[in-house]
Amino acid sequence: MHIDPLERRWIILTLVLMLAITGVLLGYAIAANLHPPSNVETIDSTRLHLTPEFAEDKLGVAKNPDGTLTVTMVAGRYGFYPQHVEVPVATPVTFRIASADVLHGVHVPLTNLSTMIVPGYVSEVTTLFEKTGEYPLLCNEYCGLGHDHMWSRLTVISPQ
Ligand code: CUA
After folding, report:
1. Bridge partners of 105?
2. Pocket of ligand 1 from Cβ distances under 6 Å
3. C-alpha radius of gyration, the chain, whole number
4. Is the predicted pLDDT of residue 38 greater than 80, yes or no?
5. Ligand 1 centroid, distance to 79 Cα (angstroms)
6. Are 103 and 119 in contact (CB under 8 A)?
7. Does the domain spanning 45-157 belong to CATH 2.60.40.420?
C-alpha cells in the first residue's frame, strides 16, 4: 500500500503525540496517586437528613477505632456542611460526601482530594494531608448561580 511521505509523517507525528500524552497522564497519575473513585454506594438524596449517617447532627469529623478519621459531609446548593472541618496532618482521612440536590464536585487545591458528588451516590475518598494549613474545599462542578460561592474551609493541624 502506498502512503504519501507527507501523510506518513503526519501519521507518525500523531502516534508519537498520542503516546506522549498517554505517558504524561499515566506518569502524573502514578506520581500524584490519582485514581478514579471506586466506591459505588447509592443513597436517596432527597432523604439525607433522615439517614443515620447524613443527619445534620452526625456530620463532621469522627475518629475510628484504628486511629483513622472519617469526615461525613453533605454538599448542597451552595455549600459543604459542616462549613469548617479540622483534621490532623499525616493521618488517613476518609471523606464520605453526599449531595442533597444536584451534581457537585469537591476539590482541595494542592492535595489529591478531588471527586464528583453525584446525587444518589455516596462519594468516598481516602487521603492523607502532608502539610498543615488552611485549605479551601471548593465545588468544581457547575451547580447553579451560586456555584462560585460554594466552598468550605479545611484546616490541617499538627497533632498535639
Ligand atoms: Cu456545587 Cu458548584
Report:
1. 116
2. 104, 139, 141-143, 147, 150
3. 20
4. no
5. 8
6. yes
7. yes
What is each CA distance from 159 to 62, 112, 136, in whole angstroms? 15, 21, 20
If we measure between CA atoms, which residue out of 112, 126, 115, 95 comes closest to residue 33? 112
Q: Number of helices (H) and strands (E), helices first, in the chain?
A: 1, 10
Residue 76, pLDDT score: 93
- Cβ atoms of residues 49 and 56 within 8 Å: yes
CA of 105 from ligand 1 middle (Å) equals 6
Q: Within a 13 Å sphere around the CA of 108, how many CA atoms are in the beta-carbon half?
A: 21
User: What mean pLDDT comes out for the span 66-75?
Assistant: 94
Q: Do 92 and 68 form a contact (C-beta atoms < 8 A)?
A: yes
pLDDT per position as a tens digit, 97-140: 999 999 999 999 999 899 999 999 999 999 999 999 999 999 99
Ligand 1 centroid from CA 106, angstroms:
8
Residue type present at position 115: T
With a threshold of 0.85, does the pTM exceed it?
Answer: no
Q: Which three-class secondary structure state does DSSP give residue 53?
A: coil
**24: region left, alpha or beta (phi > 0 left; psi from -120 to 50 alpha):** alpha
